[in-house]
Specification:
By secondary structure, the chain is mostly helical. The chain contains 3 helices and 2 strands; from the N terminus they run ββααα.
């Protein structure tokens, strides 16, 4: 059983005694959120660094690179959105925190799938285009 925190309504009408108290939203600890912001920020920076390095690397882009780029790019956007949800004070609300965490994990999965696909396609291309000696 979870305990509910009760708070009084902000605008008190004349018959305030007849109104029940309004339950407040559950909050998370600020220290816990700060650690999450740090972790999200580090992985977002790695993702953006990977995209930057990949975009500036010499070599020819091929059609099979597009799904990988799309997945990594979408993953980075979702991670950034999750980080942006946690930065304001409203990020202490449990519902906002849960939503940000869900978006972050989806973004991380997209990024991981994109990197895995890029490496797999490059390895497969190297194996299939190798000329016999």
């Amino acid at each position: 059983m979870t305990a509910q925190v009760l708070r009084e309504p902000e605008a008190e009408p004349r018959d305030a005694e007849s109104r029940p108290p309004v339950p407040a939203e559950a909050m998370i600890e600020a220290v816990f959120r700060n650690g999450t912001i740090t972790a999200f920020g580090i992985t977002v920076s790695f993702t953006l660094g990977f995209l930057s390095q990949w975009a500036s690397s010499p070599g020819v882009w091929r059609w099979y690179d597009l799904p990988s780029v799309f997945a990594v790019f979408c993953g980075a956007l979702l991670q950034i959105r999750a980080l942006a949800l946690l930065l304001p004070v409203e990020g202490l609300l449990k519902t906002v925190y849960d939503r940000a965490t869900r978006l972050y994990l989806i973004g991380l999965a997209f990024t991981g799938a994109g990197v895995f696909a890029a490496v797999s396609f490059d390895v497969a291309t190297g194996i299939l285009t190798r000329s016999p000696k």
